[in-house]
Amino acid sequence: MIRILFICHGNICRSPMAEYVMRDMVKKRGLADKFHIESAATSTEELGNPIYPPAQRVMREHGLDPSGHCARQLKRSEYDKWDMFVGMDSENMYYMHRILGGDPEKKISLLMDYTGRPGEVSDPWYTRDFESTWTDVNEGCEGMLQYLKEHHLI
Fold first, then answer.
1. Catalytic annotation present for 14
2. Exposure string over 43-82, b if 16+ CB within 10 A, otherwise e
3. What is the pLDDT of residue 153?
């Protein structure tokens, strides 16, 4: 089983979007039993909150049900629990390393590194462009699945 934890600042926009998108992708490919997928935040600002309403709206428009999510923070004790920690931007990467106490097993990556255009998934909290975030997240998740296939992990 491949255990993936998507990470963003507050766990109310990008990382839960990636969590739900990836779950949907693996389910549609008949691979759901090979994955455990969740998301978390690097900050404490949104703990306990649901997915941000504009992000929920975009997810629903694309056929995903965003209900049931509750923002939580990444913990140092989780390093051994997950195979992959996938951040949305360089700030997330910085805080993931700090929270986890480093990355000796090279489990931390950026979502867009799995695409032909590495970089960051911009934060729609600030950009207000939830559709672009949706596009980036989908491209990143597709790329990650391709990476896992090419490396014979699924």
1. yes
2. beebeeebbbebbbebbeeeebebeebebbbbeeeebeeb
3. 87
141 is catalytic: no
Q: Is the pTM here over 0.85, yes or no?
A: yes
Task: Kindly name the residue from 89, 123, 136, 141 that is annotated as catalytic.
Answer: 123
C-beta atoms surrounding 33 within 10 Å: 9
User: Is 70 part of the annotated catalytic residue set?
Assistant: no
Which domains does the chain carry? 2-150 (3.40.50.2300)
> Is residue 22 exposed (0-12), middle (13-18) or buried (19+ Cβ within 10 Å)?
buried
Q: Calculate the CA 111 to chain-centre distance.
A: 7
Average pLDDT over residues 47-57: 97
